Amino acid sequence: MATTLITDIATLVTGEIGAPVHRDTQVVITDGVVTAIGDDVAAPDHVISAGGLSVIPGLVDGHVHPTFGEWTPAQNSIGWVRNYLHGGTTTMVSAGELHVPGLAFDDLTPELVTSLAVTSRHTTGRVRPSGVKAHCGTVLLTPGMSESHFDRLIEEGCQHAKFIFYDWNHLPSGEPEQYVEWARERGITVKMHSGGVSRSGSSRVAGYDLVSAVGPDVVAHISGGPIPMPDDEIRQTIDELPSAVEVCSSMNYRATKVTVDRLTERDELHRLTLGTDTPGGTGVIPRGMLRNLGYLASVCGVDPAVAVAAATGSTARAHGLDVGVLDVGRPADLLILGPITGSLAEDVLDCFALGDLPGIAAVLVDGEPLVLGRSEQTPPPTKKVTWR
Ligand SMILES: [Zn+2]
């Protein structure tokens, strides 16, 4: 049994919406799982002093487009997952492996999309690139699928499905609703591209009428990926559907404010989830999730602890994952971080409230320090972690 004690934590945000922020606390990790917050432990194997920095859960990027491992043809780059880890992302959820070279979006078949998802699940999704929990193998739903395709997907460990290139001429047949039902029966979450077309040029325009007819678990990039549905339809989607709503780094900033204002008016910020929608036309953005947090807290008026919950616990919950919350029994995926020299912030919550990028000193996944000392993607925080 291996135990790690993290001491000298000035601020700890749990990632659970509505949960109190812990001050001057410590965390005990046993075999990769959080076993105490606040309490001490005798003779730990390792002690990390957070040096007065803050701790938040590892970020959960709910919308990425992996291809194979660390390689993305979307921006002709390699090593992107490691860079995201250094930007604080410890879990990522594929919104479809659609950048595979040569994939004809307007000529997808049930066999092809199922095989592609299964292949992805058993390649990139089998290993953890750079230690990141990458959930790959998201099927690109296409007309003509039968229940047996969904059986195969869940048998092979594929847990996510996406409507993006689906031909909505099939909507009146009831097929999309049938897919949602088959997916739900098997614990597969369904995400749906919303708004105008993406960089592929092949996704279909999806506003309130389509989204409400399908009823997905997560309305993808409601504020633009990159083109959002009209403002009234964003509000109507929030008002009429129970779905989680996703905001991505590919966002239209104005429409994100419309989205957040509506969720705030309705006291439903627990439905807000976050992602980057990268790699893609928006680029490869290692600090994308941190930027999302700063924008929500500094411009959209979201309480910084609620913004952290959106980037962690809420996004994980919407995708059926057990990560994103720091509590006893949960995986010890966490960041130690705080203000950078020159920032007026006192702790990480202040950073987000001011719109300042925080500096990451450590990233732990299942209790293992994968980044320790300083991140390769942020400036160092003013305070230092020590390890023994
Ligand atoms: Zn996307």
Task: Walk me through this protein's architecture.
- The protein has 388 residues and is an alpha/beta fold.
- The chain has 2 domains: 3-57 and 325-387, Urease, subunit C, domain 1 (Roll), CATH 2.30.40.10; 59-286, Alpha-Beta Barrel (TIM Barrel), CATH 3.20.20.140.
- Helix content is 26%, strand content 24%.
- It contains 11 helices and 20 strands.
- It has helices spanning 80-86, 110-121, 147-155, 175-185, 208-214, 231-240, 253-265, 288-298, 304-311, 313-318, 348-354; strands at residues 3-12, 22-30, 33-37, 46-49, 54-57, 59-64, 71-72, 77-78, 89-94, 133-135, 138-140, 160-163, 189-192, 218-219, 244-248, 272-275, 334-338, 359-365, 368-372, 386-387.
- The strands form 4 sheets. Strands 1, 2, 3, 4, 5, 17, 18, 19 and 20 form a 9-stranded mixed sheet that branches. Strands 11-12-13-14-15-16 form a 6-stranded parallel sheet.
- The mean pLDDT is 97.
- The structure holds zinc ion.
- The site of zinc ion has 5 residues, from loops.
> From the alpha-carbon coordinates, what is the Rg to the nearest angstrom?
20 Å
| Level-2 CATH architecture of the largest domain | Alpha-Beta Barrel
Terminal residue distance: 17 Å
Bound molecules: zinc ion
Largest sheet: 9 strands, mixed
CATH topology of the largest domain: TIM Barrel
What overall form do the CA principal axes indicate? Answer: globular
Content of β-strand: 15-25%
Q: List low-confidence stretches.
A: none
| Number of domains as seen in the coordinates | 2
Could you give the count of β-strands? 20
CATH superfamily of the largest domain: Metal-dependent hydrolases
The level-1 CATH class of the largest domain: Alpha Beta
Kindly report the average pLDDT value: 97
Helix-and-strand structural type: alpha/beta
Number of helical elements: 11
Which bin fits the share of residues in helices? 25-40%
